[in-house]
Amino acid sequence: MDASPRASDGPPDAVRDAAAAQGAAAGGHGADVAPAAEGVAARVDSEQAAGPTVPETRDDAAADSSAAPTPAAGDGHLGAAAQSSREACELAKHREHGNDAFSRGRFDEAANLYSRALQLAIMSPEADRSVLSTLYSNRSAAFASLAQAYRNRPAETSESSALYGMDPMHLAQLALNDAAKAVDGMPQWTKAYSRKGLALFLLERYSEAEEAYLAGLGVDPTCKALQEGLAQVAKVLDAAKSTVKRQRSVNRNLDELECTLCLRLLYEPVTTPCGHTFCRGCYARSTDAGNKCPLCRTVLHCGRALPITVTLASLISRAFPAEYQERKEEEDASAASRPVGTAGRTSSSQDTAAINGVVTMPVFVMNSVLPFECMALNIFEPRYRLMIRRAMEGNRRFGMAQMGRNRQLESVFTEVEITECSPLPDGRYHIEVIGRRRMRLRSTSDLDGYRIAQAEPLSDELEADDVTPPLSLLGVEVGAGVDTLITRLRTVGGTNPGVREVLQCMGPRPVPGAAEADGADARERTQTYLERLSFWTAALLVQVSRAAVRFELLQSTSTRSRLLWCKEQLGRLDNTERCCIM
């Protein structure tokens, strides 16, 4: 289970306060991340990299406290002036402290300080649009920097010092909201467009990012930051164009079948309970900002994963086959231009890819899990929130591996599948997983703060037929023993919560292979069934007996040795009055 953070790694209250203040003070929801073209640093610890450039501070953003007159006693006007002067000084102090925290890489603290300054500026009658726009721009940079820091934080660092906070996409959305307010307040300020462009870029909304950069260049064609940001967007778009030609025009007859979010032909359409239809990927990305319909803002309680509207998808693909195929190729090209495990993939392109038997998948670092073993997890780290969200958009699978004594991942881990996923109001996920198969690790890499593993499936070695006693006989004995144990557990399960929990966590029992197989196929199917039976039984016994041999069982490639261990444990439990959980 995702371990609770230590006190020193406590939740960044500043970011949550800033996000709440953004909704309360600015009247908006989350926003996108600030542009990387502004030289925003991407590290959590200030000693890991040089501090980023301090956000721009305008001269008119603070009042001159030295010029404030001392009010005379009983003078109401002077008292009001003194109060206004104190508020202006407080605003300037929060802003300067925010700039200082930003320059030292403490982005969550900077966001909190900018939020306090914004609250004062909104209540101050003397604050003009330039003050508000500057503060919105600064807070957008803080949210963007924090999102990039989470993405770029090495997985090894997070494994030794866990973080608690919003996932990078949510922070990016907060940054986008602030950048949009900065643009609205000062439409001639190029930095606001740069902030907005990078926020959209980090949200992988490349076409909108291009429009934001071009709008800024329309104000100042010589702005270097906007030119660099536009070049980054063009590079990504060109990579997608090299795989498939972008759709240049859409038949006017398809207007009614356009997605209102991407303004393109609906692809894998999903329909919300309020009756609006969007592309599956577009709808999933829109839920990063909240659980409201993107069109009518009705609160939705259906989660991110909506089923495809089969009738509408079939109608579109049959009525406009050429356009739908072009749309599919466009989505596949867009997904292919991203690293494995990134957002935006649809059900047609899974998050795990097998090439020459090698499977690429994200990895959750924790204890070992056996095949057929069920487990509940509380996901609170930003990097793993992002990983789970992406897994749910794909094939719902990821790896679970444990760390060895040398601070490296163990060579064998388990691929698990998410069976239940419940997003919580604070951004955490409560998920239930079941072990599916063993994998042998070949190499690892980092992506957005979590590990990506390249691995191959691992199976037991086939055993010769002349070994005695026969493996099938051993399997029958273990099967009978575990049936007896389950009967005992169910007898006391009504009064013992621990026993009920063990029974609820049991996965489905493996079934033998097809009976019509013969020869080598029959022997292979029998051993495959016995391998699965040994893991299913072991997953129960490690909870009942508390035996600390989970990883030894996982990496063993001998079905016989695993069945013998199960038989031994069943014998011990049968000879005792009560197992450890009774």
TrEMBL record:
TPR repeats lie at residues 190-223. Pfam families: LON_substr_bdg, zf-C3HC4_2. Residues 9-24, 31-43, 63-75 have a biased composition (Low complexity). One of its GO terms (cellular component) is cytoplasm. Keywords: Metal-binding, TPR repeat, Zinc, Zinc-finger. Residues 358-574 form the Lon N-terminal domain. PROSITE patterns: LON_N, TPR, ZF_RING_1, ZF_RING_2. One of its GO terms (molecular function) is zinc ion binding. It comes from the Eukaryota. Residues 259-297 form the RING-type domain. Residues 1-93, 327-349 are annotated as: Disordered. PANTHER family: LON PEPTIDASE N-TERMINAL DOMAIN AND RING FINGER PROTEIN C14F5.10C (PTHR23327:SF42), RING FINGER PROTEIN 127 (PTHR23327). This is RING-type domain-containing protein. It comes from Chlamydomonas euryale.
